[in-house]
Amino acid sequence: MRILSYSALATTLLFAATSANTEKIIFTAPTKSKLPDTKPGIDFLNIESLSSLDQSLQTSLAVRFTNETQPTGTDHWYLLRNLQERQRYELRICWSATQPTRFDLDIYTIANVFDEPHLIQTLNRVLQRPKPRSAHSGKPEGDSRPPTVYDSVLFLHIRAAADYFSSNRTLMQFPPAVDVDIVLDPYIGGIFPQSLLSTAVYLVVLAILGWAASQVVWHSLKPVAIKLHND
After folding, report:
1. Do 50 and 138 fall within a single domain?
2. Is the residue at 15 inside a domain?
3. Does pLDDT of 1 surpass 60?
4. Rounded mean pLDDT, 141-153
5. Residue 29: inside a domain, yes or no?
6. Which residue pairs, CB below 8 angstroms and at least 24 apart, start in 83-87?
7. Which in 13, 34, 76, 173 has the greatest CB count within 10 A?
């Protein structure tokens, strides 16, 4: 019965893994620096943010089909703030496999964004769009707490492109938004993401239980094997 239970659990985990897609980017947080005091500064940017305290965000991202005039997906910007300087992070975006989408992720410093005109233009376009409601805040605007004067801050740039074909013209012209989970995951010792700690512990415990079970079975069958050998 226990073997069947473990098999069922493994099947469930495998199904969950295959029913969702993940795109990620790994980066190292910069050292803390003084934030620009020009107006409008980043504390006036009304965009969603993730931080060491708010590590996940559930939201819907608008997508579009790419073509010659629009070679990239719909732009989305987020702020990564209150990071632990020199800490390694993994930024993941997860979505259902039933919504085929291509996500391109880029991480920029404040200087990168404000020094590149094309990045400023895409950021301004995003700021002019209505803000979606996020699951962690329950309101359309981003976190109202402004970053400190000295902080480790980065910008996350997401481009979302629909990645399928349909004979439905309306669907091809107006692809629906994609429900996603955006996760900011710090690395433990720079080796593996913090969210995998519970999984690692589970696998170790499962391995120990499997070894113990094999020892019990072996000791119970050993007398029978010796008897058959002697006969």
Report:
1. yes
2. no
3. no
4. 63
5. yes
6. 83/29, 83/30, 83/51, 83/52, 83/151, 83/152, 83/153, 83/154, 84/29, 84/52, 84/152, 84/186, 85/29, 85/30, 85/31, 85/32, 85/152, 86/28, 86/29, 86/31, 87/28, 87/29, 87/186, 87/187
7. 76
At 16-36, the pLDDT tens digits run 444 579 999 999 999 988 776
Residue 8 is assigned to a structural domain of this protein = no
Query: Does 134 fall in a domain?
Result: yes
Say if residue 123 is in the same domain as residue 205: no
How many domains is the chain built from? Answer: 2
Amino acid identity for residue 193 in this structure: P
Give yes or no: residues 176 and 205 share one domain: no
User: What domain range is 228 assigned to?
Assistant: 193-231
pLDDT tens digit sequence for 151-195: 899 999 999 999 999 999 999 999 999 999 999 999 988 787 887
- Which pLDDT score is estimated for 28? 96
pLDDT of residue 214: 82
Q: Does residue 12 contact residue 93 with C-beta atoms inside 8 Å?
A: no
**For residue 184, how many other CB atoms are within 10 A of its CB?**
20
Q: Beta partners for 102?
A: 161
Same domain? 163 vs 202: no
